[in-house]
């Protein structure tokens, strides 16, 4: 197993958001987690990414991880290229090669030297996604990754997800919409702070 | 080293794009100094320089210009650093979670504080020197630099709990007024009370007055500035270190291509 989540609990004050989440994901699996607004999807992903400490339970992850937060977390004064440079340093990559490739796949190459503050929501999300993928992590954690994408980009996103899966990467996608579930290997429903495996999931 | 240089370069570039701060620098500082020097009375006032205990006489216009300059530069650097710290709060967290060395980011923040303080204080001191010949111009520059550093660090601290840019700006303005007004020997008779020694700009105002009207290299008030600077920088950096913690169990290596 590349990712093993065991009895994870997380609460904020009196409100218990995650009440004992357990699931596993293998290499080369596309895992979906869907749930209504406020179901705790983002909290779960933040725990998986190490952004939040669980109150109880544990997360075991083998290899490197890439995390794409729900809202683009960027520096509005810097350009796209400057973001790539900073994350190249963060991930200790020898060059920006894969990042530029991803930018190209997502049709954002025209914005490389534009400051982030002038970009549209969809383009911000593209950069947000590229920053999570550019070091080719073993486990990719994506929180509503295609919000703001036009149809073309949405389709390219799924091609990209498929390509990651084919290369043995584990992709966990959180979404409030349960469409395109046939593209996933496993689909979990998050309800009342617990996960329910869905029989609707594809071939696991 | 490369991580520090990249972070530093981008932090300075981003800061240079702060248009409001640029307008304040170019227009507000010379305006304040000009108004203070030309519209206030040149009549001389006796006052006791608290740092040395000596009695001095100085023109009201010169004292007001010193106080006004310290006020203007503290607002500007405080706002600049507040604005930068607020803007990068979430982003720094993401960068460090991705593996960016925290020491490099801390180094970049301190460099930004130093560079902006040196630039602003040099500019403001040069404007003062256009109107006036203090007895120790270099010491005057050091005093202005000290207040820039103190308020820059304060701006970083305020960004820990103030969310909006306007909130930060108003708080810095109010703090600077409350800080400087009771110390002004012209405007206030409370300037001689012991409590003024606790104010953030005490060291800079005392040193500026000493630089302007004495030939003594009075450095002891700058210890107050140093204490403020260390306390606020340490608070801001400790909060940065706390905020950028991640809770990942150490990832086990898995690389098979």
TrEMBL record, chain B:
Asked whether the keyword Transmembrane is assigned, the reply is yes
Give the superkingdom in one word. Bacteria
Locate the transmembrane regions by residue number.
63-85, 106-132, 138-162, 169-187, 222-242
Keyword entries, A-Z: Membrane, Transmembrane, Transmembrane helix
What is this protein's record name?
A: Uncharacterized protein
């Amino acid at each position: 197993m590349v990712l093993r989540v065991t009895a994870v609990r997380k609460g904020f004050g009196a409100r218990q958001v995650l009440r004992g989440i357990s699931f596993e994901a293998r290499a080369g699996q596309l895992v979906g987690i869907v749930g209504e607004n406020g179901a705790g999807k983002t909290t779960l992903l933040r725990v998986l990414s190490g952004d939040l400490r669980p109150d109880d339970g544990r997360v075991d992850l083998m290899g490197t991880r890439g995390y794409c937060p729900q809202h683009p977390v960027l520096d509005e004064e810097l350009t796209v290229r400057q973001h790539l440079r900073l994350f190249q340093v963060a991930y200790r990559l020898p060059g920006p090669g894969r990042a530029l490739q991803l930018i190209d796949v997502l049709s954002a190459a025209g914005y490389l030297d534009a400051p982030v503050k002038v970009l549209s929501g969809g383009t911000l999300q593209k950069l947000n996604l590229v920053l999570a993928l550019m070091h080719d992590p073993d486990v990719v954690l994506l929180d509503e990754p295609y919000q703001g994408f036009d149809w073309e980009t949405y389709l390219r996103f799924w091609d990209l997800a498929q390509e990651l899966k084919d290369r043995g990467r584990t992709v966990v996608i959180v979404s409030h919409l349960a469409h395109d579930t046939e593209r996933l290997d496993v689909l979990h429903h998050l309800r009342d702070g617990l996960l329910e495996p869905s029989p609707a999931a594809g071939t696991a | 080293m490369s991580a520090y240089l990249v972070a530093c370069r981008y932090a300075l570039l981003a800061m240079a794009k702060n248009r409001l701060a640029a307008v304040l620098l170019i227009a507000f500082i010379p305006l304040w100094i000009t108004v203070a020097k030309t519209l206030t009375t040149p009549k001389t006032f006796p006052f006791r320089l608290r740092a040395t205990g000596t009695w001095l006489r100085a023109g009201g216009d010169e004292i007001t210009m010193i106080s006004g300059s310290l006020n203007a530069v503290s607002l500007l650097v405080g706002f600049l650093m507040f604005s930068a710290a607020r803007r990068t709060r979430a982003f720094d967290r993401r960068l460090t979670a991705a593996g960016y060395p925290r020491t490099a980011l801390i180094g970049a923040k301190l460099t930004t504080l130093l560079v902006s303080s040196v630039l602003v204080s040099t500019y403001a001191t040069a404007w003062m020197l256009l109107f006036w010949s203090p007895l120790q111009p270099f010491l005057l520059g050091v005093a202005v630099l000290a207040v820039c550093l103190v308020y820059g660090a304060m701006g970083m601290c305020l960004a820990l709990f103030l969310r909006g840019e306007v909130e930060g700006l108003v708080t810095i303005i109010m703090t600077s007024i409350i800080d400087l007004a009771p110390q002004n020997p012209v405007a206030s008779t409370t300037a001689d009370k012991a409590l003024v020694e606790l104010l953030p700009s005490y060291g800079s105002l005392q040193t500026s007055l000493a630089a302007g009207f004495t030939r003594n290299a009075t450095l002891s008030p700058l210890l107050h500035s140093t204490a403020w600077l260390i306390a606020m920088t340490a608070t801001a950096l400790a909060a940065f270190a706390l905020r950028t913690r991640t809770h990942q169990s150490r990832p086990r290596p898995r690389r098979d291509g």
